[in-house]
Structures are given as C-alpha cells and as structure tokens.
UniProtKB/TrEMBL annotation:
The chain crosses the membrane at residues 9-29, 41-64, 76-95. It is a multi-pass membrane protein. PANTHER family: XK-RELATED PROTEIN, XK-RELATED PROTEIN 9. This is XK-related protein. The lineage of its organism: Eukaryota, Metazoa, Chordata, Craniata, Vertebrata. It comes from the Eukaryota. It comes from Patagioenas fasciata monilis. The keyword S-adenosyl-L-methionine does not apply. Belongs to the XK family.
Length: 221
C-alpha cells in the first residue's frame, strides 16, 4: 500500500482552500449577475451549486451511515444535522487533516508492517477518507463546475459580456476540474496494491494545460 506523504498533505490543504474559494466565487459571480439584472444567469449558477451540494451531502451522509453502522446513534444524529446544513464534507476534511497530519508528519514506519499495526492503520484511514472526499469532489465537478464552465464560456462568446469575475470563475473552474480528476486518480492508485507512485504535481500541471488549450480552441471556433 502506498504511503500518504507530506506532499499529499500539502495538496490536501490546497484542495480545501480551492474548495472554499470556489464556493465564494460561485456566490460572487451569482451576485454580480443579479446586480446587473441578469436574473436567469444568477439563478442558473446557484441551481448548479444547489444540485451539486444536495447530491454530495446525500452520498456523504449515506457513506457515514454505512461506516458507523452498529455504533453510537447519537453521533449519527449530529452528522445528519451537519449534512442537513450542507456542511458534511467539512467533517470529512477535518478527519482527513487529522489522520493526514499523523500519517505524513508523526509516523516513521517500515514498509513491511501489516495493515493492523497502528502506523499502517492510520495510513489506511487517511487514504480511505481522502478517497471519499475525492469521489465527492468528482460529483461536484460534473454536476456543478463543468456546467458552470460551459455557461461562462457561452456568455463570454455569445453575449460579449466579460468582466473580471467571469474570468475568475472560468479560471477557478479549470483548476477545480483538473485538481479533482487528478486527485481521484491518485486516490485510486493509493488504494490499490502494487501500483507505482503517481507524480501528482506534473500530472496536475499537464491536465490543467490540456484543458486550457481545449478552451482556447473552443473560444476560437
């Protein structure tokens, strides 16, 4: 089993920052359209945001429910309440930061230890948690980020309405799509035995560059 490294932890923190920033950009862009009386675009942006949040919260809660089956029901009620307020993924990020910090900075275990040993148990815990997060982010990518990207490009090309917030939304969408797809591929490789280490940074840059050139090609059509 691959190890959760310091580099993985740094990318995890970066993913949290981009996730929160993406939410802020969504509401910022939507408010800009609303102030410009472009109500249909504002509602459409928020609709993608709402659909994505609803789906990810439902799946996140069901996964928590399966993981905690047969344990304290009081904890599950609190988790349900947090998911009801659309903040369930932040619980998962908290566990990921907790286990990730232990795995990346506080453990120096040998590679021959079994998965039941405490060091490898923590490694397995953080990889499982991060894999769940990345799967939820894939849902978000295809339910929210990608549709919003198409909407922004359509407005830019067909209506000639361009401003800073629009370019910011497009840039954040590109980053979100690239990072979420690569992170999920990394998580899959880490959860499978006998897989070589994945070069995260180079592949993220390559993925972002390819999407950038695709967008340029579409814009020039």
């Amino acid at each position: 089993m691959m190890k959760f490294t310091k580099q993985d932890f740094i990318f995890l923190v970066g993913g949290i920052i981009i996730y929160v920033f993406d939410i802020g950009v969504d509401f910022w862009v939507s408010s800009k359209y609303f102030c410009q009386r472009q109500y249909s675009w504002s509602i459409l942006i928020l609709s993608f945001r709402g659909l994505s949040s609803l789906v990810t919260q439902v799946f996140s809660y069901e996964w928590f429910k399966n993981d905690l089956e047969g344990t304290d029901t009081g904890k599950l009620k609190w988790i349900f309440l947090v998911h009801l307020f659309q903040c369930g993924i932040f619980i998962r990020y908290w566990f990921a930061l907790k286990y990730g910090c232990q795995a990346a900075f506080k453990q120096n275990s040998g590679g021959d230890a079994s998965e039941t040993d405490p060091p490898n148990f923590i490694q397995k815990q953080v990889i499982d948690v991060v894999t769940d997060i990345n799967m939820l982010r894939v849902f978000k990518t295809f339910l929210e980020t990608t549709p919003q990207l198409f909407v922004q490009i359509y407005i830019l090309m067909e209506h000639g309405k361009n401003n800073f917030c629009q370019y910011a939304a497009i840039f954040v969408s590109f980053c979100g799509i690239s990072i979420s797809t690569v992170d999920y591929q990394v998580s899959l490789r880490k959860s499978l035995p006998d897989k070589d280490e994945f070069h995260v940074l180079s592949n993220k840059l390559r993925n972002s560059k390819s999407k950038y050139f695709i967008a340029i090609s579409v814009a020039n059509c």
